[in-house]
Amino acid sequence: MEKSVDYKKLEKEYYIPSTTPSIITIPSMKFIMIDGEGNPNTSQSYKDALEALYGLSYCIKMSKMSGNQPEGYFDYVVPPLEGYWSVNDGHFNGINELRKDKFTWTSLIRQPDFVTKEVFEKAKEQLKKKKPNIDLSKCYFGEVEEGLCAQVMHIGPYDNEPETIGKLVNFIMQEGYEEDFTTRRHHEIYLGDPRKTKPENLKTVIRHPIKEI
Fold this sequence. Notes:
Elements: H1 7-10, H2 12-15, E1 22-37, H3 44-61, E2 81-87, E3 103-111, H4 117-130, E4 140-155, H5 161-174, E5 177-179, E6 186-190, E7 203-212
Antiparallel strand pairs: 1-3, 1-4, 2-3, 2-6, 4-7, 5-7, 6-7
């Protein structure tokens, strides 16, 4: 039996960085995405977004069970949840904002290369039939190419991220770059499930877009 493709293991450079910051170029990848705003800890729209993202991602993955898998399908592990973060009234790099109700976010889950717009739309139709109460109206499919970035692994509670981000920001300057939030945003990839993992053991990839000075 063929092993499921696990992008975290196949592309460790993108998902398992060191706790020491590094420079990396991120290629184009396919995603299912949802935009929203508000405090992720209290916002119902954020909870609804995750339900929709995971629902669609697993609908595509499990299409093999009905024999309706897309052309080019291969078995795989659903990639981790990711998030782009900013605020609706100014610059945000993960440190300088305590008003979580001001957050604007894009939540997203990567999809294998065989997933197309047509595959995405079919998954929406199938999921809507199975779970009609899930709002899929805000979901969209597309490709994202982050390009040149600096990244680091944060281990511990989400609220302790500013210390790790501070190290990342200092590294960026020391290496002769600067953060580039003109069209790109603060990016996090969540490798740990906060429902099952102790806060001190959570692992989060923190990634910032950069450019040469």
